[in-house]
Amino acid sequence: MELFYYLVFGALAGVVAALELGKSGKDRVATSPVFNSFKNNYILVYSLMMSGDWLQGPYVYYLYQQYGFDKGDIGRLFIAGFGSSMLFGTIVGSLADKQGRKRACITYCISYILSCITKHSPEYKILMIGRVLGGIATSLLFSAFESWLVAEHNKRGFDPQWLSITFSKAIFLGNGLVAIVAGLFANFLADNMGFGPVAPFDAAACFLAIGMAIILSSWGENYGDSSDNKDLMTQFKMAAKAIASDEKIALLGAIQSLFEGSMYTFVFLWTPALSPNEEDIPHGFIFATFMLSSMLGSSVASRLLARKLKVEGYMQIVFSISAFTLFLPVVTNFLVPPSSEKGGSISFGGCLQLLGFCTFESCVGIFWPSIMKMRSQYIPEEARSTIMNFFRIPLNLFVCVVLYNVNAFPITVMFGMCSIFLFMAAILQRRLMVVSDLHRSTKAVEMTAEDEPLNP
């Protein structure tokens, strides 16, 4: 493996270590022992849940290939996963608000464990059922756990500012360190130990079962609106009305869909971008480098949030940088002549793109705790899970369209489209800040007007 990869990984590791070890008093928030215990419990569960997700990633495509399915068959399996998340996600989100977020988290564990079990079968229909279950589980992973955390945090009377600490640490560990370790562990089980590509899925099921046991034994239940007179359709109408009547919620949903849609598209594009002529690149090591970049971003986000910087302000810069990094493949395609030789090592243009992609992953690391912070501020508690899954409908629809047409457009067109979406997210983020500031100033004026009669 070339020295370049080690240099990039080592540089990122050094920066992450320096940021974490060099935190000053301004970067740390004084909390209570009770909160720390609550936070650590959630982070442990979240890390176990994410390990169950990350363990499956490196080998799912390879497993389908081993069962003899071609690219078209595998593409339809992936579309089934995103499609089921789009179709059923809103329903399970509403049920989480009404029936309880703890129950929804347990449902996630059961659904994903069943999905893992289906990987033992080479039957296409069984694998399709597994993808549908996995899509439902993904919707719950990105809505029910956060909804439970926000509600439980507020119910226990903790400082709202402390919520950012939990978000940042959960992303730093669950979406960074755990992802790296899970990738290495999956490789160890499947290749080094010789258990084959289905072994990581069995390990994922074990981690999910452990997490479910902790949830059952230590988590309390909380709800959005559990009143008996509100059925599923009423929940949908309430969530749709909240989005339509509050520009801040609508903007937040659009921003999330634009960024995450670009992010998931990037997942399918980075490999052909770095090896357009079938260059020999270390996929696992590059994946670990991306996750380290995400850890760097979450570490930066924890500092920004601890210093109480306005999320709506700095995220405009993050989206703008993201737009530039995903436009880099378009630029390098014109400025750096592509090699015509098949195989070999990564090209100079590929090296430039890899640095840009690492920057993009750092932006992803900043995005997650920051979008969680904004969701906790703007989304009403009574329909939190429902609204969050409403946000995922255009996201999943976009990814399904991209997957279906992935061979219809040149890769530079796809990256250019993602760059435009991210630039649009930056513009909408600017609009969200303006609307939010206007709302706060109007509220302050109203409060002042109410106080004036009391203070003649």
Automatic annotation (TrEMBL):
Residue spans crossing the bilayer: 6-22, 43-62, 74-96, 128-150, 170-189, 201-220, 284-305, 317-335, 347-368, 411-428
Keywords, in A-Z order: Membrane, Transmembrane, Transmembrane helix
Coiled-coil features, chain-numbered ranges: none
InterPro entries in UniProt: MFS_trans_sf, MOT2/MFSD5
Gene Ontology molecular function: any one: molybdate ion transmembrane transporter activity
Gene Ontology cellular-component annotations: membrane
PANTHER family per the UniProt record, alphabetical: MOLYBDATE-ANION TRANSPORTER (PTHR23516:SF25), SAM (S-ADENOSYL METHIONINE) TRANSPORTER (PTHR23516)
This protein's name: Major facilitator superfamily (MFS) profile domain-containing protein
Source species: Eragrostis curvula (weeping love grass)
